[in-house]
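Quick one, tokens below:
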């Protein structure tokens, strides 16, 4: 992949990290003490065949360090990939907030962004059906601000005290540690089936949002309601959104499962390659603003993280743009050691009383203490703010800073009172003076009890194919559940969301939808509470639709970075291939020439061209579209390859654009399972046996690529 644009070196954080980089090119091998090593291949022995000597400090240092290379993986979000970049606001937001990084459009605030899956281990597949983490660290001039969000705007639970239960339920089951990175098992659905507050999130996780095409093509959400506070002290509620400029795209479940085998690093590789190739991913930062006096005007509670604010009620205003333009130098040093925390905040922002948010405020620093080994994790280069750090905190494991002077307390006179406290006018953080007056209770607000209306809103807002995918996902997940009572309870919940949804899922399970009457749902009501106070309220009648919740109509943004497989063998039509490659490259698409073997193939004009992948190393699931150029010998050779026929068939099944010219059309016919004519007349299959109209054909193929997928090919699902 060639560079489209030179990487911009505009990132002050990346520059700051330079002092910690180490390049060993043209250097001697040394110990950690700087001693040059003469033999790194043999340990010190009593004779060439004798025992190894305890004295061998070279051996011991090397092995000791190796023995301690691993740190605990994150308890959730263990698998991730990250990149550096910058954020710029479009225009000053002083009316909304006094946050410095949101004032001046000329300021480029460095960011480090880590994307992740939630349930799987560090080595699990990128393509698990799961929520994706979307954590952004802004290195602002006022200190670090971490926006630790997901690619879904709501969450499974309303109160942080349920988080360990939720995570234990979704993680591999503790007796046999099965299954890895999957929610399709009994403990997850057992928990969910008695946790009605999860139903809205379940709709999102069973939708294709849970299997993104790329990290670059996901939305991000801060989830909670936060506060913006301006210089006059006026506060407003705010919800944060990230809108990808490439639109929101997903793969289909069958494809996701195949990718997990073919390339478990699919998302990680995609992000890396895009940045290396200069196709920098971009997101706009959007905000939904609610005036404090409007807090109670919604039929849901702004403090409830299982609810979103429909964009039709409060529009998303796009206030700035984030660009990722620099890959990390070292995965462990940066991506693994980065520590995010909602409590990393800057003036102009503040929390709300969302009970999920409040609990998170405890968890994130706490977890770093064991994950990164002590209280000095903020000194690790990737976590260091670019703003100066001065305080009386001292010592602890692995302290790096050499604090000078006698005082590490405040107030003091010996250091003239330094470091000084900063008032608000000097950039000091002050908490929003929210009035709080309440009895100490363990309770859930009744305003949190409508668990089904927004789940229905999501279902209503999906297009037909999205609904079908959601039904299929539930059939898959619940189909993997062994205990029938769990499946029944889930069907009861689904029926509260939509009768058709429940009956379609039930058909797949070979069950009937049980009626609610007489079924005892244990909803986890506290021991001495009145169960009546915890019953979900019925789904609202007036639930409409919200276009923003569907992925069906992504913006037309061209085909830049879209991957095209060209299937060819010796004798491929030289003119056809050149026309296609030139047109695709001009639009920024990435081409992979896939042939029966690696090395080179000869075109019809005798030119030897390099093959990018063989039919053994590639698969259609790693591409967005497939094209078969003409050339009698080439196509005849491909027809003899079952892998080539599968390549085409799979791409067709996954509703991807297929193109073929000249003799290439006959490969498509040979690969058709449901009849050649049906395949050729399907949407998104662009073919012409007549090579004189090649340019037109290629344009049609690229239009199809821009459209993405052709869902009309899917078999209707009862
Ligand atoms: Fe969390 C990591 C996002 C609820 C406790 N969380 C973590 C990461 C993301 C989120 C993106 C990975 C950060 C990284 O890349 O290093 N978490 C969320 C969102 C939530 C949420 C959007 C709900 C709105 N989380 C949540 C709760 C708790 C935690 C309720 C605990 C009470 N989360 C953690 C953690 C993790 C974490 C255990 C594991 C690794 C880490 O923090 O650094 O503290």
């Amino acid at each position: 992949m060639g560079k489209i644009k030179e990487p911009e070196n505009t990132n002050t954080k990346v520059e700051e990290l330079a002092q910690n980089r180490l390049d060993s090119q043209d250097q001697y091998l040394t110990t950690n003490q700087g001693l040059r090593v003469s033999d790194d291949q043999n340990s010190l022995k009593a004779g060439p065949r004798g025992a190894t000597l305890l004295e061998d400090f070279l051996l011991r240092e090397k092995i000791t360090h190796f023995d301690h290379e691993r740190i605990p993986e994150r308890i959730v979000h263990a698998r991730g990939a990250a990149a550096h970049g910058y954020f710029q606001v479009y225009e000053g937001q002083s009316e909304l907030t006094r946050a410095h990084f949101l004032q001046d459009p000329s300021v480029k605030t460095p960011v480090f962004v880590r994307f992740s899956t939630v349930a799987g281990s560090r080595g699990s597949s990128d393509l698990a059906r799961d929520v994706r983490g979307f954590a952004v660290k802004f290195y602002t001039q006022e200190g670090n601000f971490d926006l630790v969000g997901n690619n879904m705007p709501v969450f499974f639970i309303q109160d942080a005290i349920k988080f360990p239960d939720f995570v234990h339920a979704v993680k591999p089951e503790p007796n046999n540690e099965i299954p890895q990175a999957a929610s399709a098992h009994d403990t997850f659905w057992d928990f969910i089936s008695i946790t009605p507050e999860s139903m809205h999130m379940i709709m999102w996780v069973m939708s294709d949002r849970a299997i993104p095409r790329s990290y670059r093509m996901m939305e991000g959400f801060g989830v909670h309601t936060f506060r913006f506070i301006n210089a006059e002290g006026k506060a407003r509620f705010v919800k944060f959104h990230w809108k990808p400029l490439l639109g929101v795209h997903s793969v289909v479940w069958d494809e996701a499962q195949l990718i997990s085998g073919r390339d478990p690093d699919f998302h990680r590789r995609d992000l890396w390659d895009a940045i290396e190739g200069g196709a920098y991913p971009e997101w706009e930062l959007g905000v939904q603003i609610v005036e404090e006096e409007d807090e109670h005007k919604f039929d849901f509670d702004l403090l409830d993280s299982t609810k979103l604010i429909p964009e039709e009620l409060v529009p998303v205003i796009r206030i700035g743009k984030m660009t990722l333009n620099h890959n990390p130098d070292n995965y462990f040093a940066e991506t693994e050691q980065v520590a995010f925390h909602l409590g990393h905040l800057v003036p102009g922002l503040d929390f709300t009383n969302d009970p999920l948010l409040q609990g998170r405020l405890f968890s994130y620093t706490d977890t770093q203490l064991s994950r990164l080994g002590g209280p000095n994790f903020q000194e690790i280069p990737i976590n260091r703010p670019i703003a100066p750090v001065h305080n009386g905190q001292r010592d602890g494991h692995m302290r790096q800073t050499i604090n000078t002077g006698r005082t590490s307390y405040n107030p003091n006179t010996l250091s003239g009172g330094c470091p000084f406290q900063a008032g608000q006018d000097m950039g000091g953080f002050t908490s929003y003076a929210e009035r709080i007056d309440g009895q100490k209770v363990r309770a859930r607000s009744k305003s949190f009890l409508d668990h089904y209306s927004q789940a229905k809103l999501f279902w209503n807002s999906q297009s037909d194919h999205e609904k079908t995918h959601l039904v299929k996902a539930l059939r898959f997940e619940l189909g993997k559940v062994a205990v029938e009572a769990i499946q029944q309870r889930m069907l009861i919940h689904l029926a509260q969301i939509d009768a058709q949804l429940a009956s379609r899922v039930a058909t797949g399970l070979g069950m009937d939808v049980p009626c609610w009457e007489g079924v005892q749902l244990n909803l986890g009501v506290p021991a001495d509470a009145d169960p009546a106070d915890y019953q979900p309220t019925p789904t609202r009648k007036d639930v409409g639709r919200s276009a923003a919740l569907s992925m069906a109509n992504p913006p037309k943004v061209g085909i830049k970075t879209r991957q095209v497989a060209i299937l060819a063998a010796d004798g491929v039509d030289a003119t056809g291939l050149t026309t296609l490659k030139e047109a695709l490259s001009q639009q920024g698409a990435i081409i992979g020439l896939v042939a029966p073997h690696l090395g080179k193939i000869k075109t019809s004009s005798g030119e030897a061209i390099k093959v990018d992948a063989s039919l053994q190393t590639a698969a259609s699931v790693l591409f967005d579209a497939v094209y078969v150029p003409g050339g009698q010998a080439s196509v005849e050779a491909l027809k003899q390859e079952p892998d080539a026929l599968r390549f085409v068939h799979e791409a067709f099944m996954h509703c991807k654009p297929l193109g073929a010219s000249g003799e290439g059309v006959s490969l498509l016919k040979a690969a058709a399972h449901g009849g050649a004519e049906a395949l050729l007349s399907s949407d998104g299959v662009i073919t012409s046996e007549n090579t004189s109209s090649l340019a037109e054909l290629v344009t049609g193929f690229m239009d199809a690529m821009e459209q993405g997928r052709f869902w009309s090919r899917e078999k209707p699902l009862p």
